[in-house]
Write a structure and sequence with these properties.
Largest sheet: 5 strands, mixed
Catalytic activity: ATP + protein L-histidine = ADP + protein N-phospho-L-histidine
Shape: elongated
Order of helices and strands: HHHHHHHHHHHEHHEEHEE
Oligomer: single chain
EC number: 2.7.13.3
Helix content: 55-70%
Protein name: histidine kinase
GO molecular function: ATP binding; phosphorelay sensor kinase activity; protein dimerization activity
Number of domains: 2
Keywords: ATP-binding, Kinase, Membrane, Nucleotide-binding, Phosphoprotein, Transferase, Transmembrane, Transmembrane helix, Two-component regulatory system
Strand order of the largest sheet: 1-2-3-5-4
């Protein structure tokens, strides 16, 4: 047990973590030097001392005390925090999640960073000074029992090292000095490690900014998910319907090869168009960027969408919505129509669909109707999210969507209103 405690004490004083924290303190001492030099010059100006740089310990301590306020002023600079955080993570062993990211921008963050920087350079300067001065003195003390000339030298007599006691106590006294230095460095490093999350941790403003960034990232992922859901989901529904119809026609006693050829052509064009849209969305995922405008077709591609939807669609346009609708609204409207057609395929099969787009009074109104046949819908793994996605798209543009049975349950009606000047909010 005593041996184990001795090993634990050795690790605490000279282990890897203790050595890294000691390095962090020495770095603080190095950062203090410019401020200490300025403090020395200021002290020399006001005390009229020519020996300020080589003066007494009192003079050096005065320069040290003048240096700390100067360091505190520097700590207010926003970029001091990310540099201090990087050093604290690597050298102090503080977990990254307990420290803030980015420059200090708020008043509270700057004040905390200034306090940390002052504490770091202040304690680091003391430990660095001791690390430079104490080891040579300790080694000299340990050499006293073995060097009579050293004990009787002018330096030895000046410091009282010629006393007989030093001949006997030189080695243990030197070892005790080195041990005290290691203990002081370990204690100071542990103090900085405890204070780092307090002074360099996120402020309430930092936490709010981080929450806003996470919300923005989540919004981007949700937008990409909707793009994939609407594009791929509609394509699969249309391809499934066309393939099923072609299979039934081929199995008929007198196959209609023209119909089969038309169905296969529709499948080919639908999949080719969907692969292009899928590549665009996946390109954004690979780049990890979003410029606020997702690529994709708009209402100008509505004719192609309806022609290869696998449904008989009666489309009515009022107010020239293709030309009058801005780009962001046009793209969202296209996706809403696409998802509406997918829902009609899933719930109504090949039943005809009525589509009306009306651009008037500063808004685009999209109305879709399809008969409720009573057939069981095609079930997607994990359930469908079409109506929810439509509502989200409308809400992003400042509009709203409503869907449900109408005309005593005979038809399903989807109504979406999008402001033409809303854009993305």
């Amino acid at each position: 047990m005593p041996g184990r405690r001795a090993r634990q004490a050795g690790v605490a004083l000279l282990g890897r973590r203790a050595r890294l924290r000691w390095t962090h303190l020495v770095l603080g001492g190095a950062l203090l030097m410019p401020y200490w030099l300025v403090g020395t010059v200021v002290l020399a100006l006001f005390t009229d001392r020519a020996d300020a740089f080589t003066g007494s310990l009192t003079t050096q301590l005065g320069a040290y005390l003048l240096a700390l306020p100067l360091a505190a002023v520097t700590g207010v600079v926003p970029l001091v925090r990310p540099m201090s955080v990087a050093a604290a993570r690597v050298l102090c062993g503080v977990p990254a999640e307990r420290l803030a990211d980015g420059p200090a921008t708020s008043r509270a963050a700057k004040a905390r960073t200034a306090a940390w920087f002052t504490l770091h350079v202040g304690i680091g300067g003391l430990v660095s000074g001791a690390s430079l001065a104490l080891p040579p003195f300790a080694v000299t003390t340990m050499a006293l029992p073995f060097s009579r000339g050293l004990r009787e030298s002018a330096l030895g007599r000046a410091y009282g090292l010629d006393h007989p006691w030093w001949a006997a106590l030189g080695v243990p006294a030197g070892l005790l000095m080195l041990l005290a230095l290691a203990a002081a460095a370990a204690g100071a490093g542990a103090l900085l490690a405890r204070q780092a999350p307090v002074l360099l941790g996120p402020t309430p403003a930092d936490r709010l900014a981080a929450a806003e960034r996470r919300a923005a990232e989540l919004a981007v992922r949700n937008r990409l998910a909707r793009e994939l859901h609407d594009s791929v989901g509609h394509a699969l529904s249309a391809v499934t319907l066309q393939a099923g119809a072609a299979r039934r026609v081929i199995d008929a006693p007198e196959p209609d090869l023209a119909f089969v050829r038309e169905a296969l052509t529709a499948i080919e064009e639908t999949t080719r168009r969907t692969v292009g849209e899928l590549d665009s969305v996946l390109g954004l995922l690979r780049q990890g960027e979003d410029d606020g405008e997702l690529p994709g077709p708009g209402l100008e591609a509505l004719d192609t969408l309806l022609a290869h939807s696998g449904l008989e669609v009666a489309c009515a346009l009022e107010g020239d919505p293709v030309a009058a609708v801005p780009g962001p609204v046009s793209r969202e409207a296209y996706r809403i129509v696409q998802e509406g057609l997918s829902n009609a395929l899933r719930h109504g099969g090949a039943a005809p669909v009525s589509l009306r787009l009306r651009a008037a009074d500063g808004e685009l109104e999209v109305t879709m109707e399809n008969p409720l046949t009573g057939r069981a819908p095609v079930v997607r793994p994990g359930g469908g999210r079409g109506l929810r996605g439509i509502a989200e798209r409308a809400a992003l543009l400042g509009g709203h969507a409503a869907g449900g049975p109408a005309d005593d349950g005979a038809v399903w009606r989807l109504t979406v209103r999008l402001p033409l000047t809303g854009g993305r909010r």
